[in-house]
Amino acid sequence: MERLRELWRRLMFVLRRGKFQQDLQEELQFHLEMKARALHEAGMEPAEAGAAAQRHFGNTLLLREASREAWGWNTLETVVQDVRYGLRQLHRSRGFTLVAVLTLALGIGANTAVFTLVDAVLLKSLPVSDPHQLYSLGADDNCCEMTGLQGNFTIYSYPLYQELQERNPEFSQLAAFQAGAMPVAVRRSRGAEAAQPYRGEFVSGNYFQMFGLSAYAGRLLTPADDRTGAPPVVVMSYRVWQQRYGADPGVIGSTLVINSKVFTLAGVAPPGFFGDRLTDDPPDFWLPLGSEPVLNSLDSILRRPGEFWLYITGRLKPGVALAPLQARLTVELQQWLRTLPKLDEGDRKDISQQKIILTPGGAGVTELRDQYASGLRLLTVLAGLVLLIACANLANLLLAKGRASSVQMAARIALGATRARLMRQMLTESLLLAVVGGAAGVAVAFLAARMILVVAFRGTQYVPIAATPSLPVLAFAFALSILTGVLFGVAPAWISSRSQPAEALHGATRSTRDRSALPQKSLVVLQAALSLVLLAGAGLLTRSLLNLQSQQFGFQTRGRYIVRLDPSLAGYSLERLPGLYRELRTRLGAIPGVLSVSYSGYSPMRGDNWSSDISLYGQPRPDYSKVVAPSWMRVSPHYFDTIGTRLLRGRVINDQDTPSSTRVAVVNETFARRFFPKQDPIGKRFGIGESDHSRDFEIVGIVEDTKYQDARGPAYAMFFLPFLQKVPRADQSVQDAIDSSNYLQDIELLVSGYPPNLESQVRRALDEIDANLTVLSMTSFDEQVARNFNQDRLLARLAGLFGFLALALASIGLYGVTAYNVVRRTNEIGIRMALGADRQNVLGMVLRGALGQAGVGLALGIPIVVAGGRALSSQLFGVKGYDPEVLVAAVVTLGVCAAVAALVPARRAASIDPIQALRAE
Amino acid sequence: MARTEILPGTLYLLILKTLESGPRHGYGIAERIQELSDDVLTVEEGSLYPALQRMLIRGWVVGEWRQSENNRRARYYRLTASGRKQLGAELSEFQKVMAAITRVIQTA
To answer: What is the pTM of this model?
Structure first.
């Protein structure tokens, strides 16, 4: 109770501070007068009595302060005092404050922007309930559809999934979902509107239950929807419902036509849910696995035990031990594999090596994460360097300011301020700057993050990464501001508080020794070194990007356009394809400006790749544990001309390759080298699959190597087949798979000039053929290729920006320090000139000092650049980490900027009038 | 004239005891202590006023502005009930300590 009253009294003190001061003052005055009177009555003169009384009293100021301190608000009061003083100081030197805040905003903003992305891509969990309970079977990096043993299993078939689900009750829910997303064409069943392209994903019935989600509207999938014969339903993402269907509640429960099949829309997923992985273009529709045979009626893979295409993630019941479960899963997998019907001897031996590893699944499938992780790490380092440089700059500025106010500092010390108190006041000023800079930095971060997302994900419809700073990001920005403030505030505060009062009051400018010069110089050296690192890094990344973009791909992009189309989405059967293909070539070829039309299974740099094992006629089957299976696809006549791949020998696929003519194939150089070394491949035969098919195709031509998927590695061995040529096979499932390869997915156009409205003409032509044909996308070939380098482009641009910033900051820093030193040494320069030095000497002296600092910085920076380059070399293409040209260019750039920065104050020094200088204080 | 320092910790006791006989202002308290101790103990103003502030915070005294003997405004400090209790506690504590010290001195 007493404590409460005490607290109340303390609070009252805060509110009535003014009156308190007055009262105490009056009380002390009274005491003084009484004392003086007593002395007077004892015999002293009044005047002397007053003085004696005062002396006896001692330091009134200290007394008052001690009395105030008793109330316990001392710390808070002094902090408030410091803040108000700091704000006044900042307001007074507006120019400095503006530069400082800007510098900080850029430094802190860059780091916060990068951290926003790091948080979203690398750290965040999926927006589902209790993500820490989720575990994936395997570590998700085999995408997207394959047969054969994986060793470390990560993708599974549906029958295997059903088996594992049945035998493992430790999972409260075990769900399977498609490893790769697929394009779907969707329209309302009523109405005449054309089908629109979307992304779809097959998931098991308990997918949403496993994630613990409830529908925003309607209902989500249940295991009942997954049963054979269940009416086909689909779940829509919230984003699509809002943006493309206007959040119309009427569409829920209505029928949609997906890839020409009828589905009912069951409901809408909750807002913010974007699926089981962070990726660009997340799924818009989730379909039950049970409906896969309906959608893929031509080539359904649901029942095929050996077709692996699903990821499996489950929610573990609490208290389940991981290791025994993992071991049991491995045993179950191996037992099941032994029952696989079509396993050859080699694979059968490997069954005991197959295993399942449980990995935490709360973050979702990590494709995007893995893709961007190294780039983000690099960005973090670069942004950190920029911040360091900014801090060094500010520290130097504050040091200079500190020296300028050293007289004031000395006076305060003489009046009784402790060094600790002074330091605290200077630190408060730094922290104020830092906090204001940090707030501005958050705004910069928001803009920067948006810009980064636009560049990094160019060409996508939607990325579920928010550029708005989340709470952890804001906390990070705040913590960074405080840290920055301490970093650049401590050194100047420490140095300023150590100034000797007497020295300062006398005017220490006469001395040539300056204790603050060493820290200032070291800061400049640090800035120069770091700037060199950033510039060199920018140079390396830019060069790498240029190398990537201008390399020999094996195709030409000028005047080429790629149209993505899938006739299977419009319900075309295999028999209708020849007619469709004829019409395509006629109508598209008729568009003015179009020189050549072709179509293929996929196009280069699209991101697709199909590969199969082959057998060679008259040769032993290649050992696929040592050699990579070749890639392949079907191409139309004029394909190679249209995309600009050169024919080396023989002939390309042309109109004479019909369904009834000889089965032929065209191969590329790598294929010829790998499978027919030191022979002429023309005339040789091979086939897909086992040796009973090794006579299927006759090689008629060799084309140059072309990169189809990986821009950084060598071209894949590849063979090309004509459309619609069929080879009968015993195994119906393999037959279906190969038959489905007859569906084109890309159309290539070679166009002269820049025909206006090309896209709308293409769409119209396709619409005239069949209104159900949905154009999934249309881009220029250049754009398609450029999208592969989004990350490299981003890194190069940002590194360049950071390098430029660093250069500007370092130059300003060098200029500031040199100018300050010239002012400080005005006297000395005057003496030197009076003693016979001419302007050249003075110029040289100043320049040598400044460039000396820069030079030391460069010398220190070079080994860091070399080391950094080695660390960077995995990101670089065609340029070594220690590329001498880039290094020399960076050194020269920095040297020139340093020279210019130092020249201005040096010239001012050279033009000092010696008489004025000697008079100056 | 050498001044004997007030034993640390006894300042509150002295002030509280002085106020037992009635309210006084700060100068009056110092004067009274000096007088009662026959000039042996002198309270420094630098310790007196901060101590008074602390006693105000703790609620052992309250301050009232009144007209002093020479018609000037002065702040008078008056003992509260809680102050009286504190006085009793300090007194017994002091006596206990003094007895202990005395025992040590006499035995050695």
So the answer is: 0.77
